[in-house]
Structure prediction request, 193 residues.
Amino acid sequence: LRRRVPQPRQRSGGLRGLVTVTSRDDVSYDDLGHVRHYTESSTRSDAPELTNRTDWSAALYDDRGNVTDSVETVQTSGRTAAGGYDVTKTTRRSAVVVDDQGLTRTFRETQWDSSQPDATTTTDRQSTDFDLVGREIASVSLRHEQGQTTTPDINGVSQTMALDKWTTVVQSGRTFNDVGQLTASKELSFDGD
Prediction:
């Protein structure tokens, strides 16, 4: 069975809006029908020279079928005006707590980035509030950035700095219009826990 992929509508100024093309392959399942792994490739019309390749794996599911531990690696590669580009970001989400309505209340996320391989960012979502239809409206997170970062100074000489920063992030005031689009939100962050 082959389906024709709809093409974006043309108008006098060219394509209408952003076009993203995504393909998912290598999907595998466990004995209970839970997705265990997939790979995904995507390109966007605003940066057609770059390709994102996602490799996702689930390590654990709870007894209701919710993912409680997973790893996602996204490699962005291609050519830009500045030359070759190849950055890999890995995110591990663990200790996920999902309530009886299937809403994610708390989790831990640890991120690594190939552009700063000696640094990690760990975010502990401490609480999450939802509206009556299950949209996230507020949250409190504690973020810890640690390790070492290397950046060029004004003369282009690499400078390595130790990193050990704690930040509390409070998001609130999320409101939505009649079709569910986000219309407002607030974020407050401050150093320390």
In short: The mean pLDDT is 90. The two ends are 55 Å apart (CA to CA). The longest strand covers residues 158-176. The CA atoms of residues 52 and 76 lie 4 Å apart.
